[in-house]
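Dear support,

I submitted the protein below through the web form. The confirmation email said the job was done, but the results page showed an empty box. After a refresh the structure appeared. I'm attaching both so you can tell me whether what I see now is the final result or a partial one.
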Amino acid sequence: MKIPKKAVTISLIIIATIFAVFFVRFFLGGPEDSWICVNGEWVQHGAPSMPMPDEPCTPVKNTATVTISDVTLYRGTWFDIEYPNGFTPSPTTPTEIREGATYVQTDEARFVSPDGTIEFFVFSPLWGGDPADYLTIGPAEELVDEETQESGAGVDSKITRWVTVRATDGSYYRSFVSIKSQVGTGSDLHHVFGIKYRDNETYELYRDAYVDFKNSLNQYSD
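What the results page shows now:
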């Protein structure tokens, strides 16, 4: 018996349609029949063949970072450093003019974000010394973590200290790194970088900008 051409065509169209639906559903549509994590709870999506997972449902946190495209140059007595546009630097006085450029007469500076949730800090004198109070854990702060690493000797000596503290009322955290080199040689050097932040999520948002800030430091010599 000869099958009409029209019937063959219709059959092919039906088969192609079924295949297309199958392809979209299982290859492009993703895991429709599964358990998904929503606001800390497992929610049934479709008709999963597996039972609800036993492990805790942990939402994926936002790991995006703030992208800083423009920076401003801050000049201290013996250093310059780039900070994100929109941040407010301090101090800004007193100043002096050297070769047509304005320099703030200071060895340390702070830079606060427009929303006040982030503060960058730098201490970069010509030689050694300590910042006014940045390395001190204040009466309204408590130590969270501290680590010290020493290496080398003489002009190759280096002492690096990482510290994180938090406000006792939980309003902020503050992390800094103190880097001392050529220790005990009479030509000691000391630099300090710090970041004050509201919480870990805020820190992650500005982490890359903070790394760029530290890497931009240019130390002058006499």
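Response: this is the final, complete result; the empty box was a page-load delay. Confidence is low (pLDDT under 50) at residues 20-33, 59-64.
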